[in-house]
Amino acid sequence: MVNMVKEPQNFSSPSFVFSLPNVLTHTPPKDYPFTHWCLEDVLPRPACEALIDWNPGRWAVAGDVGGRRETRNASRVFVTEKERRQDYRIDSLACHLNADPMRQVFERVCGVVLEKAALRLELCLDQEGFWLEPHTDIGAKKLTLLVALSVGEDAHTWGTDLMMPDGTPVVRASGHFNSGVLFVPAQNTWHGFVRRPMKGVRRTLIINFVDETWRAVHELAFGPRA
To answer: Could you report the per-residue pLDDT of 98-154, keeping only the tens digit for each?
Structure first.
């Protein structure tokens, strides 16, 4: 992380309003093509600013990945203990997401059990040529929330594509800044990213909770839960 901001953060500070529990509680789910929630104003303003300020380097920006992020595993960017130490805004966001009140809202609204799940936060930087093949996120991922943080021209059109089982895109999530699409991975949660023009960098925060079978523990915001 280039910009190191180490000031202590008061979680009750008016500048760090964590409204996601309330936003999710009052957002009805959509059923097509699978159950998902379309959210607005997902992250606190300071957290958004920190994620925009974060410039890992050109090596972290992906173009054509052959439809799979795994092809660039060595160049992927995660919020780990190191990043949390360097910027209190990142740390505050991770702590709020990881805390029991947020987990309880996810569990109550989404019908998922997160008691032993670990928090994984990935910052994705994509550019012209990028695309993702249809996939479902099933397996160790217990919950997926994709937050749009792009500010480039036409960035509002860069949302994730929700798909039918045959890979046909039928719904495009919003790409508006600080909007998000949330779902519980299942065998029908097909999604991807249809290649489209991008002038600038597409910036997305992927929020996952993963179960105890997740082996890449170096990707976690906190250590695995006991």
So the answer is: 999 999 999 999 999 999 999 999 999 999 999 999 999 999 999 999 999 999 889
From the list 52, 199, 205, the residue with the least C-alpha distance to 127 is 199
By CB neighbour count within 10 A (0-12 exposed, 13-18 middle, 19+ buried), where does 144 fall? buried
- Predicted local distance difference test score (pLDDT) of residue 224: 84
Cis peptide before 33 (omega within 30 of 0): yes
CB-based contacts of 115, cutoff 8 Å, min separation 6: 103, 225
How far is CA 40 from each of CA 14, 34, 149, 154, 206, rounded to the nearest angstrom?
Answer: 19, 19, 12, 18, 15
**Domain 33-53+60-219 sits in which CATH superfamily?**
q2cbj1_9rhob like domain (2.60.120.620)
| Ranges of each domain in the chain | 33-53+60-219
Residue 131: the pLDDT is: 97
List the beta bridge partners of residue 169: 163
pTM recorded for the entire structure: 0.93
**Count of H-run helices and E-run strands, the chain:** 5, 11
First and final C-alpha spacing in the chain: 29
Q: Are 115 and 34 in contact (CB under 8 A)?
A: no
Among 47, 77, 79, 51, CA closest to 62: 77
